[in-house]
Amino acid sequence: MSVTTEQPAVAPAIETVESHLHPTPSWDLADHSAPTGREEIWRFTPIKRFASLLEPAEGLKTLEWGANFPEQVTVTELTDEQARELAVEAPVDRIAALAAEQSVHRTHIQVPADVEIHEPIEFTATGQGGRASDHYVISVGAHAKATIVIRFQGNADYSEKLDVLVGDGAIVNLVTVQDWEQGSIHGGQRSLSIGRDATVKTVTVSIGGDIRLQEDTRFGGPGGSVEQFGLYLVDAGQHIEHRLFVDHNAPNTNSNVDYRGALQGEKAHSVWIGDVLIRKVAEGIETYESNKNLVLTDGCQADSVPNLEIETGEIAGAGHSSTTGRFDDEQLFYLRSRGIPESEARRLVVHGFFWDIIRRIGLPELEEHLLEVVENELQVVS
Amino acid sequence: MSKLEISNLHVTIDTESGPKQILKGVDLTINPGEIHAIMGPNGSGKSTLAYAIAGHPKYEITEGSITLDGEELTEMSVDERARAGLFLAMQYPVEVPGVSVANFLRTAKTALDGEAPKVRTWVKEVNDALGRLQLDSEFSARSVNEGFSGGEKKRHEIAQLELLKPKFAILDETDSGLDIDALRIVSDGVNRYMEDKDRGVLLITHYTRILRYIQPDFVHVFVDGRIAEEGGKELADRLEAEGYEKFVTASRA
After folding, report:
1. Helix (H/G/I), strand (E/B), else coil: B219
2. Which of B93, B95, B112 sits opposite A339 (nearest CB)?
3. Nearest CB to B79 within list A336, A352, A355
4. Which of A81, A159, A255, B189 could cysteine-pair with A99, CB 3.0–4.6 Å?
5. Inter-axis angle of helices A342-358 and B101-113, nearest 10
6. Average pLDDT value over all residues in chain A
7. What residues have CB less than 8 Å from A67, skipping those under 6 apart?
8. Which residues of chain A lie closer than 8 angstroms to B115, CB-CB?
9. How many domains are there within chain B?
10. Is B128 helix (H, G, I), strand (E, B) or coil?
11. Crossing angle of helices B119-132/B150-164, nearest 10°?
12. CA B95, B101, B106, B109 torsion: positive or negative?
């Protein structure tokens, strides 16, 4: 099934702007009541499974953070007030509100202006079991260029509030890998602000643990551009949810979203929400959102909801597509007609499906590792 | 050897209103070294014949047999047929995003030979074959058929024919959508392939144009799921002058 919108329907969409899809951000926990599961933003989430992230906790820890970065980069502690001051936006859901309120450490990772950092800035955050939470801010100065990689691993019930501020003209590649041990839970909100004429690429890889991430993007000025790629592998009983919201709040901005997942096993559940808001001021923008799900076995569920809200018709383009299905029989036939056995043909197709995302990472070692992960996961199928 | 024998072939496809018979008893023998052209109007079942021989799951063989050098193909899976020596150059080659031409060709060659080709000679062989089809060496880094022009897709099919060296090749409307230059490049590739006399070609086409470049030994006119008329190259000339109308009318009578 495929839905493609080439010519946006402007008139009917106007009414829905600032709708229930975008809860009012607030630092006050009281503004984010405990969800019942019937709310629009919670209706796909297994509330019980994320329960530990939805209530204040005693003895909250932080993850164990390891880091590897050049000396131009600084990492400093922030006060609660400073963190709020710096943040792109206030929490939009209860998990993020709790993360902001309760975190033990508030951290500021800074890349100064006008530097070009060639080697990746790497963080590895390891869960030691139990509840953990972080509020951290990454800021990249104007005209700087950097690649930032954050890898989550170990075991935790983890809530995250991340704010990423990208300065004017900066070029940023932000890669996150959620590779938790089974039984881990990770919820949170990542908010990205893109400066004037800045170029940002994010690659979000979710492979281990139950995950629910709210990923918001907005623009600090005109001319900014964002590409957001995602890859997820969902096994039996696992829940992986990516909720994207791109707010085209400035003219001549671009966004391109491409998330792809594979599901296998009983009750494997993926959710992808792709909301794009094109505000009245956002003339000349271009946006495209795509989500593709490869369903490898019976008993899986892939929810995929693209949504465009458009306040101006004076744009270069807006579209989205969503496909969910099994292997393409014609692709398999073509490969097999060249002598390639069926299992190998399937492997090639899946390899190709994810390679289109993995190659965006730009870090050969991580790319290779993820290709291996994809292939190992698939051996379960064939 | 490369003898393809089709006898009494009946094929149906599933439609909303139940199975529909497309091939209604096809008999055809192609001896080693021979090129046979199958010509016919749209909807006559030419492509069905190609897909049924290759084993596409959409086409069900209800009766008859297809053998390649005495081996029954109808009992084999799609990839087994290819490993038995069969090749189908498709009318609409399928895009496989994220899989490079180089990876695809190497994987296919490995599957067909039962061992990986030698790296040094293989890369040169691939580049030479692409070069002969006037595809540059960067071509092998592109995803299979993705974003290829119509002509590139067809030339890529023929490059595979030259590299994978099957015993027997079916070319399903390989000429359609090609300009004269591309048609000549593709035809040259097919003629090079047939320099080895232990091979055979079934060339399916709607137009006589390609037969100026590839000389068929036999021409068959396909109408309503069977062969309505057989002859030598002169039959193609007659079709060029008279069209299919006479054969279609005759088959209805």
Report:
1. strand
2. B112
3. A336
4. A159
5. 160
6. 92
7. A75, A122, A123, A124
8. none
9. 1
10. helix
11. 140
12. positive
Nearest by Cα to B97 from A291, A348, A37: A348
Instruction: Kindly determine whether residue A353 and residue B103, on different chains, have CB atoms separated by under 8 Å.
Output: no
- CB proximity B203 to A under 8 Å: no
What is the separation of C-alpha B159 from the centre of its chain, rounded to a whole number of angstroms? Answer: 13
For the stretch A158-188, pLDDT in tens is 999 999 999 999 999 999 999 999 999 999 9
CA distances from B198 to A319, B6, B165, B167 (A): 53, 18, 11, 7
| H/E run at residue B32 | none
Consecutive H or E run containing A379: helix A364-379
- The pLDDT score that the predictor gives to residue B62 is 97
Q: The CATH number of the domain where B238 resides is what? A: 3.40.50.300
DSSP labels for A75-112? Answer: EEE--HHHHHHH-SS--SSHHHHHHHHH-S-EEEEEE-
Q: Is the ipTM of this complex over 0.90?
A: yes
Chain B stretch 123-152, residues whose beta carbon is closer than 8 A to a beta carbon of chain A: 143-144
Measured in angstroms, the CA of B249 and the nearest CA of chain A are apart by 35
Is the Cβ pair A339, B104 closer than 8 Å? no
Q: For the CA atoms of B121, B124, B126, B130, what is the dihedral angle to 10 degrees?
A: -160
What CA–CA distance (Å, rounded) separates B247 from B224?
10
- What pLDDT band is residue B240 in, cutting at 50, 70 and 90? confident
Element (H, E) at A217: strand A210-219
Domain range for B227? 4-252
Please report the number of interchain residue pairs, chain A to chain B, with beta-carbon separation below 8 angstroms: 81
